[in-house]
Design brief:
heterodimer; A: alpha/beta; 7-stranded antiparallel beta sheet; 14 helices; globular; B: mainly alpha; 0% strand
Chain lengths: 475, 356
Amino acid sequence: MTYVRKRGRRFWLPAGIGALAAAAALAAAFAASAVGKTSAATPIKIGILSDCQGAFGAFYDTDIGGALAALAQYTGGHLKNPNKPSAGFVGGTVAGHPIQIVGFGCSNDRADTAIKETKRLVEQLGADILIGPLSGDEAIAVANYAKSHPTKTFINGTAASQDPTLQIAPKNFFRYNGDGAQWNAGAGDLAYKKLGWRKAAIIMDDYSFAWTSGAGLIADFCAVGGQITKRVFPPLNTTDYSSYVRQLPAPDKVDGYFWVVGGTGTVPSLKAFEQAYGPLSAKNVMGNLFFEVTGNFEQIAPHVSGAYVGGFGTPGTDYHSAAATAYFKNVAKYIKSIPPFGKTSIPEVYGGFFYNYYKAAWALSLALKATGGDLSGGQKALQAALAKVVLNGPFGTVKLDANRQAIEDEWSYQIIAKPGQTLVKTVQWIPKVNQTFGGTFAASKPPPSRTFPPCTKRALPWSGKERPVVNGVIK
Amino acid sequence: MTALERLGWKRLLNWALAFVGVLLAGLGPVIFSAFFAHTILTQVFWLGIAACSLIFLSAYVGMVSLAQVSMYGIAGFVLGNTVTQGQVKGLHLGYDPWVGILITIAVTTVIGLLLGAISSRSAGIYFLMITLAFAVLANTFFGQVTVLSGFSGIGNIQSFTPGFLGNPAENPNRLYYLAFVVSIVVYVLCRYLTRTPFGLTLQGIRDDPVRMGSLGFNVPLHRSIAFGFAAFLASIAGILFVWWNGQIAPGSIDLSAVIDLLVVAVIGGLFRLEGAWLGALVFVVISNYVRSVPGLGHIGITAERYHTVIGVIFLVIVLLSPGGLLGIWEWLQNQLDRAVLRPAVARPAPAEGPEP
């Protein structure tokens, strides 16, 4: 060893060791603080799990904001920072029990991370109730976790894969939003009747939510006689879609494309298609909810203004009703802006990311009130109350089926971006869609996948019951 | 020599500390909180076994392999596919758990042997690249081949464990003790192996493969077998991992998991087997508790940036001591020796290779 290097070590090594020792001591102190932590009986501890990274990381504060807005409205608290929901929540109480948000989980649409965050919130931070997650595969993992932890309660955030409430369906997992297939009820029908498609191809992210969402479009379209000629599956979080769009048939071989690519992938995949085959038009593309979410809408709508879009369980931004206006006003009272989208706006608050978390926290508040905040006996009373909750929401009534899955009204949209008119136009309303999608899906059948459901003609319960929506009013 | 030196006080101290550590770990579920024992320490045990497979290869065979995560991932996927049944993703073959375990270990070891055979003639950066390519391949494979897994992965594996273990979600202590005992067995096995003729041959190959080749040893064969052995160790880690986690998905073995395991090994000490578990402990504790440290939010370490803290600590350790934490510990012991016990006599700098 050289003299210079030796001298360097004599100073830096003890300094570094000191720093490491301090860090280790700190970590040990926190570990020790976990020792013998007793959960006080009085506060009701809630954890909220969403995505802060990955394809849907932009919706972190939107999701948390939705849940906290409902808690603020129904338990009397308020946000620590009305311009940043993830800063926290104080002041709520139910029947004398203070509401304590133990933490916000930060996941990245992957099952593993969701489980890590769930364990952190439930086991380390002591949450009694978890609201979340955001993404389909995370919910499958959380539902499996819920099955082994029956004394805790799990209320879905906005995840919409089918499995958690049909194939897994634990008794302590509740979902107050439709799954991806339910949301698309009526959309395939629009493609057949309004756009005149007979043969279509579908491109969907290769994971459970997109399969479920695509399944709804396929089942709806094929039920009335349409044919799906090709299914293409880019992996989630793909950045370069060029090889995947090339697998789609050329525009002269099909009448249209169902586009079920979401999050950060929607716009790049559409751009890749246009580079390969030329511009898309409103006549030959139909998206799922990701065409109209804030962030994507601004880029997609000007290109394909007039395109039809599958639903998100809520109407478009042109919907009018006294209840909807009251809902928006209440939310705006508690939350002034939602990063990174800016000032609290109707597109944000009407969107499913916000509203589904809002419904989850709202249902929880109602159930807690009904049981007087009683979490004893393995939370049996709370879970029984949650199963019976009926939400008379601004966009329709939501109640749960026998698997604790929402039965709700669904909507279809058209995205409009012409000079002088930018909106998500509501075009169709379908009442009371349930998860079996008219018998297409069942617990004994496999969950949606690359190959399921097949393209079959069948009678759907809402054929003929869809009602058009004109200027934001159901006709 | 002083009396202390004759006794080998450093060795005594190390053994004493190891004994205390093992004792604390043995009493883990009793003295620590349920979360710390079941979520932190059990993870430390299986992660330590995986890191031990990496350190065995790097310390005793001179090969730094980035494929160990894929090995334990493959083990987890094979176990998931063979033992689960019902409405889960994957093949859901529903075999008996013990049959599943045997198949898992066999398949993973064979894959390790094959990968070792492919890469045994390369060294240094080229070997690293081959193992990295394999890691990316395994991750993509399980994401794309949806009949075996898909993006969602395979869940509910906890319901299909051997009888004596039960469901780890309901009986976490059993898995804790199993992982603890298996860690000790793996450590002892590795230490024993390094003293056998085979182990000594591997170390010779590490130090000078050309000379060993000219002495008549089949260098690629020995490397392949070492790789197979490391895959065997990793398969044990993988089995414990899926029992602990309950599920496995391609995200469990992506590039960040590969880097995490390397970080664990380097933090602990890339040339010491004990470093595997020490590195795993430091890594898991910091990853879990760094977000609870007050004030970090004010300097921008928000929820999604805790990896920054881990990265900084990793950098500090690597810059200060290539031997990791155990290297620092040895340095401390030597400084103590020099300052207190034999201050007047100049001593040669300690060697930084692994001890035989």
